[in-house]
Amino acid sequence: MAIIVNEKTKVLVQGITGEFGGRHTKLSLDYGSAIVAGVTPGKGGQFFEHGSHKVPIFNTVADAVAATGATASAVFVPPPFAADAILEGVDANLDLCVAITEGIPVRDMIQVKRAMAGKKTRLIGPNCPGIVTPGTGEGSKGGCRIGIAPGYIHKKGHVGVVSRSGTLTYEAVWQLTVKNIGQSTCVGIGGDPVNGTSHLDVIKMFNDDPETWGIIMIGEIGGSAEVEAARWVKANCKKPVAGFIAGATAPKGRRMGHAGAVVGGAEDTAAAKIAIFEECGIEVAVTPSDMADALERSAKKLGVKLA
Questions:
Q1: 140-145, long-range: CB < 8 A, 24+ apart
Q2: Which of 212, 74, 200 is nearest to 130 (CA)?
Q3: What radius of gyration do the chain's Cα atoms show?
Q4: How far apart are the first and last CA of the chain?
Q5: The pTM is what?
Q6: Cβ proximity of 250 and 270 under 8 Å
Q7: Across-strand partners of 14?
Q8: CA-based angle 222:131:147, to the nearest 5?
Q9: Distance (Å, rounded) from C-alpha 176 to C-alpha 167?
Q10: Residue 199 appears among annotated catalytic residues
Q11: What is the pLDDT of residues 38-65, one digit of tens each?
Q12: Spatial distance between the Cα atoms of 89 and 145, rounded to a whole number of angstroms
């Protein structure tokens, strides 16, 4: 079992004719993801071809959904137009919209968040690597890959990973895989200050998923999302949880990497978040290379197997 997506999820790609969108559509098709449509205004009626795949292109998301039954989208649309692309998916009643685009103006995302209130569509991102539910094939092929994560590093299994950082997501996944510990679903939620799905949203889904036996939560300086999730874990989660916070040496007031990674308040420093993790019973990874080991320590304390 997995959360949010599985191998049957029908995916459309907004921006499929762009260089970046096209490149990752090919990788997702090779992975075995059910990419059923592309959307590029003005190019409806054409096809995106890769190997034996011939993916129809539509002018609008609504047209693509009506023709193919797609329920999820990957957004590879340039920043000035990405907010409208997300809202087009919302208007088409998609279950899921994964916004890969980096650099969407904060004001645009505030408007998107307001417009999405009460709607059925879940947003992951923006500025994220996307989501992977590994399959059972070689290099975990046969699952669902939406976004830009390297599919071959994954392994089907029982650990959930949620992270603001794409690179650290891949690092945690690779550490698990080389230990022969597979993943249920890996979710990169993005590092922008205004995003869709939060750490807590994903942690709750992992907690409810009987096939997820352990969780790695990766955060950064800035904001309170990790603190909120940690306190929920303390009160509600019986599964082993390991955490890592990036930015321990970042000076106050300086943005580090992601747009949302800037220390502002008392609880958004790395030291404060790590202290709260420890207070909440989350096993803290000392360095990025310690993430899988930290989860194993947590699982051992609780007597839980991870594979």
A1: 140/31, 141/30, 141/31, 141/32, 142/7, 142/31, 142/32, 143/6, 143/7, 143/31, 143/32, 143/33, 144/2, 144/5, 144/6, 144/7, 144/9, 144/11, 144/33, 144/34, 145/27, 145/28, 145/31, 145/33
A2: 74
A3: 19
A4: 14
A5: 0.95
A6: yes
A7: 39, 75
A8: 100
A9: 14
A10: no
A11: 999 999 999 999 999 999 999 999 999 9
A12: 18
pLDDT > 70? residue 262: no
| CA 299 – CA 97 distance, rounded (Å) | 33
Strand pairing report for 130-133 and 122-124? unpaired
Helices (H), 117-224: 166-178, 199-208
Contact 181, 156 (CB under 8 A): no
SS3 label, residue 93: coil
**Tell me: the pLDDT tens digits for 141-184?**
999 999 999 999 999 999 999 999 999 999 999 999 999 999 99
Phi/psi region, residue 39 (left: phi>0; alpha: psi -120 to 50; beta: rest), is: beta
Average pLDDT, the chain: 94
DSSP sequence for 174-202: HHHHHTT--EEEEEE--S-SS-SS-HHHH
Dist. CA 255–CA 298, nearest whole Å: 32
CA 144 to chain CA centroid, Å, is 12
281-306 burial code (b ≥16 CB/10 A, e <16):
ebbbbeeeebbbbbbbebbeeeeeeb
Please write the tens of the pLDDT for every residue from 263-295.
Answer: 666 667 888 999 999 999 999 999 999 999 999
Sheet holding 214-220, edge to edge: 144-147, 130-133, 183-188, 156-163, 214-220, 241-246, 283-284
